[in-house]
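Title: Request for sanity check on low-specificity L-threonine aldolase prediction

Description:
We are preparing a figure and want to confirm that the structure record we downloaded matches what your pipeline produces today. Could someone re-run it with the sequence below and paste the raw structure tokens into this thread? We only need the token string, no images.
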Amino acid sequence: MATNKVVDLRSDTVTKPSDAMRAAMAAAEVDDDVRSADPTARRFQEAMAAIMGKEAALFVPSGTMGNLVSVLAHCDVRGSEVILGDGSHIHLCENGGISTIGGVHPKTVRNNADGTMDIDRIVAAIRPPGGGLYYPTTRLICLENTHGNSGGKCLSVEYTDKVGEIAKSHGLKLHIDGARIFNASVALGVPVDRLVKAADSVSVCLSKGLGAPVGSVIVGSKAFIDKAKILRKTLGGGMRQVGVLCAAAHVAVRDTVGKLADDHRKAKALAEGLNKIEQFTVDSASVETNMVFMDIVDSRISSAKLCQVLGTHNVLANPRSPKSVRLVLHYQISDTDVQYAVTCFKKAVEELLKGSTEFEHLVDTTTKNSYGH
Ligand SMILES: *Cc1c(COP(=O)(O)O)cnc(C)c1O
């Protein structure tokens, strides 16, 4: 039965730490990690390096810092340029930090609906060598897997390998913004270390679908991580008894990766439920992981009003555009919650179409950006 519980579908960042995470935090053995002395952080970083198939790993406070530190480590010469998707999180949603803080110039390539960039467009974006007087120097290519702005689409291992080959053959590095790389790995059925084999660095969010309260981890070669550690300190991300956070993250990786397939199944169920509502369309075939992008096909309903009315039923969702809504699943949303949410979407539509004056005060605020933040 529907409870008074809030069904929060705004993001997979909203999970609360599990009892096991809190217990691990309480029991964590800690020391000063700026001196590399925190045993819990060391153990966690070693475990993550092994899982991701790289030499070393570094815990960072956020995905944003993970990406920034990674890009800066690869582009430590002024006048560096990075090739990245025009719909990528690094380009759209990280305050332009690679430019404003790192002095790195972005060269965007169009993201296709599946989150890829066409290979020939990537190649065409690489600056000719010896461009001397006019051109910045291409040093890095960034991919995003899963690709958030395309609804959590997975980049295949074949595609990733191909981009890796291109990077290598041009003397460039490859960074993967793998905020949701475990979702991709699970959905594709490809071990995560294999999926990122071609990458020189990967940034992995622990606080998205994995459910840790705080943090991301970056992985790469030992030399890359040594550089990244200095950059992390420069940016104020050197944290002292950080084992408290790493302990929770370690539990998250241990306990939640196995639940991601279930999130993907629930996302499909949500998409199918919503698709049965006349005023909405969802391409359920496009739901590959834990995200659902839903379009409103009734001219009388805006996403802003719909989300506000849903809120009165304790279902939280974010408009993605004036006529679409982004919904994100995570392990703390149950099958019952999904069914309850579908019922509430139906009710919200009925209430909005009743023509009742009850909702006239609601404003049609638009979203701030295409990521729906
Ligand atoms: C969330 C996210 C980030 C940034 O992570 P924060 O921890 O929120 O800074 C980077 N890339 C993608 C694709 C994300 O979804």
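Thanks, this matches our download. The mean pLDDT is 95.
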